[in-house]
Amino acid sequence: MDCRSFALLTSREREILTLVATGASNRQIADRLSISRHTVRAHLSSIYSKLGARNRTRAAILFVMHAPAVDPPL
What we know:
Strand content: under 5%
Order of helices and strands: HHHHH
Helix content: 55-70%
Structural class: mainly alpha
Oligomer: single chain
Distance between the termini: 28 Å
C-alpha cells in the first residue's frame, strides 16, 4: 500500500475516511454529510477495497500513516 492508493478514492470517500479516522461512527458520518447510513457503508466498502483494508480501523491507520495532506471536512 502506498500513497497512490489514495488517489483512487473519490472526494466523498476521502471525506468519509477522514471522519472515520477522527473516530466518527457511521451514524455520525451520515448525519454530518446528510446521507444515509447505507450510503456510508457502501462508501466504506469501496474504500476498503481500494486500500486493501479489511475494516475501518485498518483503513484509518493507513490513512493516518500514508495519506497525502488533505483539507479537513467542513
